[in-house]
TrEMBL record:
Keywords: Membrane, Transmembrane, Transmembrane helix. It comes from Agathobacter rectalis. This is Uncharacterized protein. The lineage of its organism: Bacteria, Bacillati, Bacillota, Clostridia, Lachnospirales. The chain crosses the membrane at residues 6-26, 38-55, 61-78, 85-106, 121-141.
Length: 142
């Protein structure tokens, strides 16, 4: 149960980071009401969560669907073209993957010699994931 809740919290934070990344480059759609924006963000969170839950073994398909969800939802949220949204979604996912990879490598060399992020080292693995997402968050602001 803790794993699902922790995953949901991380995905909410990741969706917020994605939104902030788009905010850096795009002007927000002023015609949308606040409830519509919240609904779009909730749909992005649901897409991220369902992709992570059901496609955890199929990395390429999962990443493709995550990028596709971000492209479609953020193009409505910011009222930008699909082409721009594809570029921003790929840039954000690339940044996220690079930071996750660096965090995984640091976990592999510093914390656990076996490289098991969640199995034998649940607390350390969770801290590495949190560190990774905070690093993405800081990369967006600086």
């Amino acid at each position: 149960m803790f794993t699902y809740f922790f995953s949901l919290v991380i995905i909410i934070f990741e969706a917020i980071c994605c939104n902030l990344f788009y905010h850096v480059f795009c002007k927000e759609n002023s015609r949308l009401r606040k409830s519509q924006k919240v609904l779009l963000m909730l749909s992005l969170i649901c897409c991220y969560y369902l992709c992570g839950l059901f496609l955890s073994d199929m990395l390429i398909l999962k990443m493709t669907l995550v990028v596709l969800a971000a492209v479609i939802i953020m193009s409505f949220y910011f009222e930008i073209s699909i082409k721009k949204s594809v570029i921003f979604a790929l840039l954000y996912q690339g940044l996220s993957i690079i930071v996750d990879y660096i965090a995984y490598i640091s976990n592999n060399t510093i914390i656990s010699k076996a490289g098991e992020v969640q199995k034998g080292y649940a607390l350390e693995g969770s801290l590495v994931v949190i560190f990774s997402k905070i690093t993405v968050f800081l990369c967006i602001f600086f």
